Amino acid sequence: MGYNAQLGLFDSPSAAQRQNALAILGRFGLADRADVDFGTLSQGQKQLVLLARSMVQEAPVMLMDEPDSALDFTNRHHMLRLIRDSIHSQQRCGLITLHDRRRSCVSSCRCYMARWRFCPMAADSSW
Asked: How many helices (DSSP H) and strands (DSSP E) are in the chain?
């Protein structure tokens, strides 16, 4: 669980923390995988679990490097939408590095390119 940093050496997550973690897993489509060993998950499921874990930690700033790297085309869009929506709904700051310019500008609020060329607001500018 993503609460390990908040727990003491012999503490276990509270019922509220477990419920919150399950709710976040549900938002990422993994509620049915809550009791499955991490090592048996697919690469894409592992990516989603790690993202869900980071959301549970409630850090005010989220830094991510290629969070969609192990995903196929469809799930890349799904993952980036989940990240964007989660950061927005929880009023956090997020910095995500992506190497594909097309995905960067479509998936984000603002996009800065190499050599500091600016890509204006994305098509989905709901932020």
From this structure: 4, 4
